[in-house]
């Protein structure tokens, strides 16, 4: 059942569990993700990344995502991952996505706030939730990002100002995870995560391969919602 993540995030935060996020690139992958969620009786963020629009158009993704999200009984959030520009995000909302990410994490703090505010204004008017990214989660490959990039840790001192200015519904933070396959052992800064979590009630999002969820050895990346224990 297609849902907003608004309520789901509160439940996850209150009950200390993470919601996995899976990027689909075609109907087979979308079907596989919702089938597993249904089989396990668990919620899912069924996501489509803007960087995949060269292999699957936004219109196709919306048709596939809307269909498969509503094909199961468990809650499924149809989420736009790493939205890069306002027009694309607006179109995703207009096509039925219930959650969108604006990723302006590679721009300046001020530019990040400006574009995020614009997206929040459009989305919130329509009951759609927004995720933004502060600091930058780097990419070791380009499966989801447009280029290989280094991570920039989220500065704790930026968090409250960013939240106050933007009113985003969830915040992707950078604490040492990375997109793609890790080269060597990742160093995850749990102290930074705890510190950030102590400053805001907003659910936190971890992008990249998540070593905390070690049982998932392969496949798409996941995100976890912080439970204040790291
Ligand atoms: Zn990501």
In short:
By secondary structure, the protein is an alpha/beta fold. It has helices at residues 5-15, 27-40, 58-69, 86-94, 109-125, 156-166, 190-199; strands at residues 2-3, 21-23, 44-49, 76-83, 99-102, 129-134, 170-173, 204-205. It has one domain (2-213): Alpha-Beta Barrel (TIM Barrel).
Q: What does the model show?
A:
The protein has 230 residues and is an alpha/beta fold. It has one domain (2-213): TIM Barrel (Alpha-Beta Barrel), CATH 3.20.20. It is built from 7 helices and 8 strands. It has helices at residues 5-15, 27-40, 58-69, 86-94, 109-125, 156-166, 190-199; strands at 2-3, 21-23, 44-49, 76-83, 99-102, 129-134, 170-173, 204-205. β5 (99-102), α5 (109-125) and β6 (129-134) form a beta-alpha-beta unit. The longest helix is centred in the middle third of the chain and has 17 residues, at 109-125. The radius of gyration is 16 Å and the shape is globular. The relative contact order is 0.15. Mean pLDDT is 87; it is low at 214-230. Bound molecules: zinc ion. Zinc ion (ZN) binds next to loops.
């Amino acid at each position: 059942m297609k849902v907003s993540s608004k309520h789901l995030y509160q439940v996850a935060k209150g009950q200390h569990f993470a919601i996995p996020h899976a990027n689909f690139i075609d109907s087979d992958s979308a079907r596989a993700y919702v089938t597993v969620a249904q089989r396990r009786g668990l919620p899912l963020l069924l996501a489509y990344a803007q960087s995949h629009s060269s292999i699957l158009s936004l219109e196709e993704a919306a048709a596939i995502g809307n269909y498969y999200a509503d094909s199961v009984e468990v809650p499924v959030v149809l989420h736009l991952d790493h939205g890069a520009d306002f027009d694309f995000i607006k179109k995703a909302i207009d096509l039925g996505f219930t959650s969108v990410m604006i990723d302006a994490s590679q721009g300046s703090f001020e530019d990040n706030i400006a574009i995020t505010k614009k997206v929040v204004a459009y989305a919130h008017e329509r009951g759609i939730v927004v995720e933004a990214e502060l600091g930058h989660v780097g990419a070791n490959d380009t499966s989801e990002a447009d280029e290989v990039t280094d991570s920039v840790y989220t500065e704790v001192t930026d968090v409250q100002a960013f939240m106050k200015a933007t009113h985003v519904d969830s915040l992707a933070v950078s604490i040492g995870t990375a997109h793609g396959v890790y080269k060597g052992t990742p160093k995850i800064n749990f102290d930074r995560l705890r510190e950030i979590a102590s400053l805001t009630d907003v659910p936190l999002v971890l992008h990249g391969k998540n070593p905390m969820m070690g049982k998932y050895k392969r496949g798409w990346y996941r995100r976890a919602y912080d439970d204040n224990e790291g």
